[in-house]
Amino acid sequence: MEVTDIVTSKPDRMVDARSVFGIDVDLKVPAFSERDDHVPEIDEVYRFNTEVTLAILAGFMCNRRVMVQGLHGTGKSSHIEQVAARLNWPCVRVNLDGHISRLDLVGKDAIVVRGDHQVTEFQEGIVPWALQRPVALIFDEYDAGRPDVMFVIQRILETDGKFTLLDQNRVIHPHPCFRLFATTNTVGLGNLNGLYHGTQTLNHAQIDRWNVVATLNYLSREDERAIVLARAPELDDAAGRALVESMVSVAELTRKGFAAGDLSTLMSPRTVINWAENIRIFRDPGLAFCLTFLNKCDEAERPVVAEYFQRAFGKELASFESGNVLTLATP
To answer: Where does the ATPase dynein-related AAA domain lie (predicted)?
Structure first.
């Protein structure tokens, strides 16, 4: 679609939530027939969480401001993107790291060449650009944003929130199909457990403006095993499935250890997938485990992690043969 088409386009079909997202609910969701460059690619093996999917669909259907909260590696941003991908809804992610400034969001004057002359021209930031289009704007790491950035976002958290460009003396009205989402680790409560350095305590008045807050916890054992096998299909045989079962057991033990205060680091589903993919490279589950997770742990905690490995695999971490480690997988 051309840019002018994007600005004026609206959803032109309805999709069935049960058949498209695999959730047990009778729901018709508006969607676009055509894809553009901003629509995420569909991940065919992605597994949707029912509660979180319903929250995200409410955002798309009813223009709710939706925040998805959860520990790292649970797939919060991916969940929103994969819903958008199946609706052909353009989607833009912005990571609110410490380098994102108010000018990046609002816009700023820039020198451009028009004909043979240099002129100063206002260039819109991501917020006014997205606000005028049928775009799902996702603010990643929302609780890491700087205070001046957060107050810019607060202007558009109202469903019909207009955005004023003071430098341009212009008021931007949101496109009817503009949608706003955020992902966060702490729901604005700050870095309570030391796991998420750099997060901020958010203004409660701003948190209150989010219409829906969904929590995405770690997957069930069965779902996590299925996703790992989908990402590493070469393990999908009897021996491989037994291996993945033990890998997921290690991950669960690290999460329980973290909850009990025995560990300061835990294995996310993303880490388990990385472990499986690294086994493909190094051909050794023990070495791949060390390179994927163990070396990230505090040195004083590594014996505890090695014990988890021994309990899940029934053998010591050092007992894995690594004679064929150098026989790397070909790309």
So the answer is: 66-192
